[in-house]
Design goal:
The protein has 103 residues and is mostly helical. The chain contains 4 helices and 2 strands; from the N terminus they run ααααββ. It has a two-stranded antiparallel sheet with strand order 1-2. The chain starts with 11 loop residues before the first helix and ends with a strand.
């Protein structure tokens, strides 16, 4: 589910990392927003990339959070489009697979 990486050159690495580790980044961002706990390595890694590639960036952790939010929204758009195009298939959470809809 790779999307074009655009924007300032300094964000290319961070965006690519978020795309590659989206589920983990999103889980960390969710925990941070809900409980104030910043656990894990992914958001910190993204923030570090932002700071390294764009020196002088303020609130790199919040920029990292925003990149995760944007990537998650993009993934949801893709999922919604897929679901609209494949109305005869459903995702089975128990098996983690896509199956024919049993109507």
């Amino acid at each position: 589910m790779s999307r074009p990486v655009s924007g300032p050159h300094g964000l290319v690495r961070a965006r690519a990392y978020v795309d590659e580790h989206l589920a983990d980044c999103a889980a960390e961002a969710d925990a941070w927003l809900r409980r104030g706990d910043l656990e894990g390595v992914h958001l910190k890694a993204v923030a570090r990339m932002i700071t390294e590639d764009l020196p002088g960036t303020h609130d790199a952790l919040q920029v990292a959070e925003r990149l995760v939010e944007l990537a998650a929204l993009s993934a949801m758009r893709e999922l919604s489009a897929w679901r609209a195009a494949h109305t005869d298939e459903v995702f089975n959470r128990d098996s983690g697979s896509i199956q024919a809809r049993a109507d």
